[in-house]
Design a protein that fits this description.
61 residues, flat
């Protein structure tokens, strides 16, 4: 059985907006994950369910 995983990545420059998005998405029931970069082992541990990753611009450089 193939398991599909949805990962929504939002790149937000402004720290205040990132924080607000994390709070609102969490309150709405989304699984929000913060990570230092895309190689962070936390991403692999949570790959079984849909996630929202909100990162700053440095994460993709």
């Amino acid at each position: 059985m193939v398991s599909e995983t949805l990962l929504l990545v939002l790149i937000v420059r402004e720290a205040g907006l990132r924080s607000t998005l994390v709070a609102r998405l969490s309150m709405a029931g989304a699984d929000v994950l913060t990570a230092d970069d895309f190689n962070d082992p936390r991403l692999a541990r949570h790959k079984k369910r849909p996630l929202v990753l909100i990162a700053d611009e440095a994460a993709v450089d």
